[in-house]
Amino acid sequence: MQLSKQEFIAQANAITKGTLMEALEIEFTDYGDDFVTAKMPVTPKVHQPDGVLHGGATVALAESVGSFASHVFSNLDEVFVRGIEISANHIKSVRDGYVYAKATFIHRGRTTQLLEVKVTDDDDNLISLCKLTTISLPKKK
């Protein structure tokens, strides 16, 4: 039975309970043939001491959505996926509202995957540009 997009997103959000993603209130919002998106509220919980979004929270959002994209597009009966490298360029500050992350594939190999994750604000301004490398390793049988 094929899940609807809404059912799939609901299941994706349900598995984040009790994780960092729940603590940061990261919520998956959409997916397509080659992307996954999520959002995170910008509140004092994710601020630096001077009241702007913490780069570490931004990177946690980027890794969450990018790793999930690698999971969605992998055969999880045969492999497990892990992030092995992430880099981020923080371009603009944000104090409130939401940030949105969209992960798209640059390379979708059998073993390694390279994703670009653009993090934007409510006005679609680029906040951070991240690059994530994941690896798919065979499950032991």
From TrEMBL:
Q: Which residues form the Thioesterase domain?
A: 51-127
Q: Gene3D superfamilies annotated for this entry?
A: Hotdog Thioesterase
The protein's matches in InterPro entries, at most eight in alphabetical order, are given as: HotDog_dom_sf (IPR029069), PAAI_dom (IPR003736), Thioestr_dom (IPR006683)
Which GO molecular function terms does the record list? hydrolase activity
Q: What is its EC number?
A: 3.1.2.-
Q: What are the record keywords, sorted?
A: Hydrolase
**Family in the record:** Belongs to the thioesterase PaaI family.
Q: What is this protein called?
A: PaaI family thioesterase
